[in-house]
Recover the amino acids of this structure.
């Protein structure tokens, strides 16, 4: 029997979608407003889902406090109120699209979770646009 435990989190961050090897015109054509050279922000909403068996001793799949603290240290402390392109090393050579951000978040959390647990991360870039990645 497997149960999914989910925790919501939030961070604000700025980004710019562009490739240095493309002209400004090409960046504008492909990335539109998201290639604005002066950057722009998003209110990112995150949902982290951990699926696994219920521990017969505690009754938990994972302690919510542990999950909450993990998200704070690995995601919020790294990304909240940051310029993703300039301040978060994972994006120095990777375009900070929602797709790439959700994969990076998954990679940051994964090593800290029980290997028997399944991890899915959902990231909302806007209330209507969201992406998910799971192992
Ligand atoms: Ni954007």
């Amino acid at each position: 029997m497997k149960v999914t435990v989910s925790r919501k989190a939030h961070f604000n961050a700025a980004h710019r979608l562009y490739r240095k090897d493309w002209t400004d015109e090409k960046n504008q054509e492909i990335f539109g407003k998201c290639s604005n050279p002066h950057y722009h922000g998003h209110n990112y909403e995150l949902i982290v889902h951990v699926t696994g068996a219920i521990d017969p001793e505690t009754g938990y799949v994972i302690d919510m406090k542990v999950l909450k603290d993990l998200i704070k240290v690995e995601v919020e402390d790294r990304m909240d109120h940051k310029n993703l392109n300039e301040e978060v090393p994972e994006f120095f050579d990777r375009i900070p699209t929602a797709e790439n951000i959700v994969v990076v978040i998954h990679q940051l959390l994964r090593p800290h979770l029980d290997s028997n647990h399944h991890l899915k991360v959902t990231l909302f870039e806007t209330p209507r646009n969201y992406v998910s990645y799971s192992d």
